[in-house]
Amino acid sequence: MPHILLTNDDGHQAPALAILARALQPVGNVTVFAPDHNWSAAGHTKTMHKPLRVARGTLAGDIPLFITTGTPSDCVGLALLGLVREPPVDLVVSGINTGANLGHDVTYSGTVAAAMEAAVIGRPAIAASMEFDETGRRVGDLEHAAEFVARLAAQTLERGLPRYGLLNVNFPALPAEQIAGVRVTRLGIRHYHDVIVERADPRGRPYYWIGGEPPTGEPEEGTDVGALACGNISITPLNLDMTDRGQLARIAEWPLQ
Ligand code: MN
Q1: CATH no. for residue 141?
Q2: How far is the CA of 163 from the centre of ligand 1 (A)?
Q3: How many domains does the chain have?
Q4: Cα–Cα distance list, 66 to 84, 87, 99 (Å)
């Protein structure tokens, strides 16, 4: 049976982690390696300036669980570089994140970064996320989404992914029976509405928050943003090669010598 490493960026206590772990069990032997707290928007962070602690336990009764002080991508690094050596990991799954990871979100997302870390090390990976509704609630069906991720995991194990490839799957904020279908998409465009909020500490020195209203996006057909806007599940194949090949010749012509 294949060996699936499961992680997330919402932390080991996130309900979606146990639901997905259980859904993946028919597809492979599951080992969970998750952060000890919520790291959402951690991006692809590698902890280099402090030691990482790892505790062991079980999730959902009997699923092996490693909990670390590190980031989501540290989870994958720690596991694949040695702590989860036997049997070798065949597939890494990250999620299901609370909140969609669409378009430019993939550059912030700890969920996607964990899958990217797997791709760096040379393992196929899937990142899965579910969008909120306008009121900030998750109205989607986690069990249904987890079963979909399990089917996607089985297909990925059977068919493989290109070198340095990963899949980014997003579920709309809809009950299972209202989901329109499945779309294979490209990354769309996000619009962030962040502002700087300045406050003063007790000594009168300023400090800052960056935040604001949730991001919106351009619901263009063929994109992940567009797919979710029409009630579809979106699967975006990603690759660590972010080269913009169309620019190679143009930049080479700049007079830089
Ligand atoms: Mn998260």
Answers
A1: 3.40.1210.10
A2: 26
A3: 1
A4: 9, 16, 24
DSSP single-letter state for residue 60 = T
Tokens encoding 41: 């928007």
Does residue 209 belong to any structural domain of this protein? no
For 156-169, what is each residue's pLDDT tens digit? Answer: 999 999 999 999 99
Distance between Cα 99 and ligand 1 center (Å): 7
Q: Long-range contacts for 106-110 (Cβ within 8 Å, ≥24 apart)?
A: 106/168, 106/187, 106/238, 107/43, 108/41, 108/43, 109/9, 109/40, 109/41, 109/43, 110/9, 110/39, 110/40, 110/41, 110/42, 110/43, 110/45, 110/71, 110/72, 110/73
Query: pLDDT of 134-186, one tens digit each?
Result: 777 778 999 999 999 999 999 999 999 999 999 999 999 999 999 999 999 99
How many angstroms does the Cα of residue 45 sit away from the middle of ligand 1? 14
| C-alpha of residue 109 to centroid of ligand 1, in Å | 7
Domain that holds residue 17: 3-188+218-242
Ligand 1 center to residue 9 CA distance, Å?
5
- Is 254 contained in some domain? no
Residue 206 in domain: no
Residue labelled with tokens 């007790």: 202
Would you say residue 89 lies in a domain? Answer: yes
* Distance (Å, whole) CA 153 – CA 167: 10
